[in-house]
Design brief:
The structure holds two protein chains of two kinds. By secondary structure, chain A is of the alpha+beta class. In chain A, 14% of the residues lie in helices and 23% in strands. By secondary structure, chain B is α+β, with helices and mostly antiparallel strands. Classes of the chains: A alpha+beta, B alpha+beta.
């Protein structure tokens, strides 16, 4: 399963701002609910996390040593 | 059922002694009732109150009442916590890995298990709130917990991230003061706790634990001094570099993922500055960002940035 941004549904008010800033189609509105679509097009730009006024989206990084890929 | 009534039930030593006898689960001196007995206590109390009209609450409602009755004391023992009796499995390897219990033999570890309770928390749960009294000393069995302070305008400063085997609210437990920071689960976590009043007895009965406690508190002081040093003397990019190096360690242990906001809270800056710092580190070849992964490609370069003067 491809790692994707995570939405905290308790914080998300479905304002759709993240959908409007997403350039790869990973975030869409389905029946008024922000939904994540698994896609390799998501390059982890973190704009959705930056745009969310509620802090409901997190794009967490895994920090590793180069030789432990 | 009023909060005042629940407080009375909670703190009656005689009631707790009776509870311990009847229930068979281990009970501390103050303020813990296991759920199975609480039903009878609350029902009996309703009759004694003379109202007659208050029915014994259903178990689900009782659990909610008990949690509300403990109010916002997240770190007190609640009806949802599990007593750890000899029938429960508290992995001895985990206990031995906790610095407080280093050097204890099997018999001593068995005796300590009877004083401990287990709590599972979901990701995002607030385990301890800054300024609240600490009812128990918590150890992390699994998961990750961030310890942070919040400014009046909502800015967050992460003091540390607790990992399995580590404790995180020692200061408030030992000086009987309010919690100096808040603690929140970064992942689903399992905690083991020792109630604060029981802890003092543990220290008296196990001198090795008291010695270990001194070492733990000394290490905690050292960490905080390093944080002060970072915030005072290092440039932001140096702090970000240090965060990356400290987080990855020797690369042998899995660590929780960090968002740019987490890194900003640890570095005492804002998210946008962290994003720029990471871009700069990538441009200089110290790291490589591949989607959700930050790979440290030049450890020495990061160390040089950490050492660079502000």
């Amino acid at each position: 399963m491809l790692p994707m941004p995570e939405i905290d549904k308790a914080k998300c008010d479905n304002c759709g701002l993240c959908v409007s800033v997403c350039t790869c189609g990973a975030l869409v509105l389905v029946s008024g609910q922000v939904t994540i679509v698994e896609t390799e097009g998501c390059h982890w730009c973190t704009m959705c996390e930056a745009a969310c006024p509620q802090g409901a989206i997190s794009c967490a990084f895994e920090i590793v040593l180069a030789e432990s890929r | 059922m009023s909060r005042a009534y629940l407080s009375t039930v909670r703190t009656s030593p005689a009631l707790n002694a009776a509870a311990a006898q009847e229930c068979g689960h281990h009970h501390r001196q103050h303020g813990t009732l296991c759920l199975c007995l609480s039903l009878r206590v609350i029902a009996g109390g309703a009759k004694r109150s003379g109202t007659g009209e208050i029915a014994a609450p259903a178990p689900g409602r009782l659990a909610r009442l008990l949690v509300r009755g403990y109010g916002h004391c997240y770190n007190r023992v609640t009806a949802n916590d599990r007593c750890l009796t000899s029938r429960e499995t508290v992995q001895k390897e985990l206990l031995q890995s906790i610095p407080y219990f280093a050097g204890l033999d099997s018999t001593e570890l068995d005796s300590l298990r009877h004083d401990m309770f287990e709590r599972s928390v979901p990701r995002g749960e607030i385990i301890q709130l800054e300024g609240e009294p600490a009812g128990a000393l918590f150890f992390l069995a699994s998961g990750a917990v961030k310890i942070f302070k919040t400014s009046p305008d909502g800015k967050e400063q992460i003091l540390s991230i607790a990992r399995p085997g580590e404790s995180f609210n020692d200061v408030a437990v030992f000086d009987d003061g309010p919690a100096h920071a808040s603690a929140q689960a970064m992942t689903p976590a399992v905690l083991y706790g020792i109630p604060a009043d029981r802890l003092k007895t543990v220290l008296r009965e196990h001198p090795q634990v008291a010695l270990n406690t001194a070492r733990v508190l000394a290490d905690r002081t050292r960490q905080l001094v390093e944080l002060v040093e970072d915030l005072s003397f290092r440039r932001v990019i140096g702090r970000v570099a240090k965060i990356l190096l400290d987080h990855v360690g020797d690369g042998s242990q899995p660590r929780p993922r960090l968002t740019q906001q987490d890194m900003a809270a640890m570095a005492g800056t804002v998210r946008e500055v962290v994003a720029r710092s990471l871009k700069t580190l990538e441009d200089e070849g110290a790291i490589q960002i591949d989607r959700h992964q930050i790979r440290i490609t030049d450890r020495e370069a990061l160390q040089e940035m950490v050492a660079a003067p502000a």
